[in-house]
């Protein structure tokens, strides 16, 4: 057992070279493991957020490391899911907590401009500047590992020393009451995003180099019922979703694990009550559907 009293019956359940940065107890007999890896052959399950590494070729170089999250059933030492989380540069997970629904909150650092984000508070690395350094990220992963409920960068771009890029490093993560998520760490970014601050800027300003602690509270939207409803009659699938869910494209793919294989569905929409409705003719091959903001 580790310091928290968790036990893993097998140490080889991940099946590849990994560096574990966080471990957390989930509901029932599940345990979450998260960290980073340079392996391209971890045993990802069939439908997850990211079935392959983020783009860098496999190798021991730090630039090639991706994050990963695994959910393990300790009653029989099997994987419930394993997903990569990362882009084309270096990504590392350092913090993870689970809620009572089995959803995972995950934090770490990334230098990837194409890190997977969804419903983000901050959509660009380093506040959109061209600097090449790490931002913190924070995300919420669905209980089955199949999609991101939300994912965001958190960091600035301008470092406290002249001509340097800012770094933003998380160290601790917790979930509180009323869907509140707390993230703490340190930053030397002059433009770190703040809201309702007790301290609005770094204590020491240029030309002096400085870093300060930060703590952020993010209020998570309560989980909602399934957004997309699907019914099938023969070769026609009818999909519906709330009209309040604005700004989404309906997309389809034959392989949900191929991130580049999703395509926009051109079927016309109608409105029935408070829902958008679209009908799509499909063949015999498996078909997956999702709503995604452009």
| Residue share in helix | under 10%
The mean pLDDT is 81
Low-confidence stretches: 1-11
Quaternary state reads: single chain
Largest sheet: 4 strands, antiparallel
Radius of gyration: 20 Å
Structural class: mainly beta
Q: How much of the sequence is in beta strands?
A: 35-45%
Shape call: globular
Distance between the termini: 44 Å
**Total helical elements:** 0
Q: Can you give a write-up of this model?
A:
By secondary structure, the protein is an all-beta fold. 0% of the residues lie in helices and 41% in strands. It has no helices and 18 strands. The protein has strands spanning 18-25, 30-37, 66-73, 78-85, 91-98, 104-110, 135-141, 148-154, 168-175, 180-187, 212-219, 229-233, 236-242, 249-253, 263-264, 269-272, 275-281, 288-292. Strands 1-2-3-4 form a four-stranded antiparallel β-sheet, with no helix packed on it. The protein has a four-stranded antiparallel β-sheet with strand order 5-6-7-8, with no helix packed on it. A hairpin with a 4-residue loop joins β3 (66-73) and β4 (78-85). The termini are far apart. Mean pLDDT is 81; it is low at 1-11.
């Amino acid at each position: 057992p580790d310091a928290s009293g968790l036990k893993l019956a097998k140490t080889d359940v991940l099946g590849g070279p990994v560096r574990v940065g966080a471990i957390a107890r989930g509901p029932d007999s599940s345990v979450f493991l998260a960290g980073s890896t340079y392996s391209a052959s971890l045993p990802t399950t069939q439908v997850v957020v990211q079935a392959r590494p983020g783009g860098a070729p496999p190798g021991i170089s730090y630039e090639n490391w991706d994050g990963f999250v695994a959910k393990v059933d300790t009653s029989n030492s099997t994987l419930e899911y394993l997903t990569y989380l990362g882009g084309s540069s270096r990504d590392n997970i350092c913090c993870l907590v689970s809620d009572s629904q089995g959803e995972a909150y995950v934090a770490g650092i990334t230098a990837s401009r194409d890190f997977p984000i969804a419903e983000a508070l901050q959509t660009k690395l380093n506040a959109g500047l061209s600097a090449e350094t790490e931002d913190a990220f924070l995300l919420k992963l669905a209980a089955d590992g199949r999609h991101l409920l939300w994912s965001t960068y958190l960091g600035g771009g301008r470092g406290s020393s002249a001509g340097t890029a800012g770094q933003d490093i998380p160290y601790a993560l917790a979930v509180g009451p009323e869907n509140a998520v707390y993230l703490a760490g340190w930053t030397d970014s002059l433009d770190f995003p703040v809201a309702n601050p007790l301290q609005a800027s770094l204590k020491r300003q240029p030309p002096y180099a400085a870093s300060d602690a930060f703590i952020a509270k993010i209020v998570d939207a309560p989980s909602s019922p399934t957004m997309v409803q699907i019914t099938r009659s023969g070769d026609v699938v009818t999909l519906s979703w709330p009209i309040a869910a604005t700004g989404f494209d309906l997309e389809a793919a034959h392989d949900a694990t191929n991130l580049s294989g999703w395509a926009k569905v051109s079927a016309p929409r109608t409105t029935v009550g408070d829902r958008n409705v679209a009908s799509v003719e499909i063949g015999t091959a498996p078909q997956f559907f999702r709503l995604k903001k452009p």
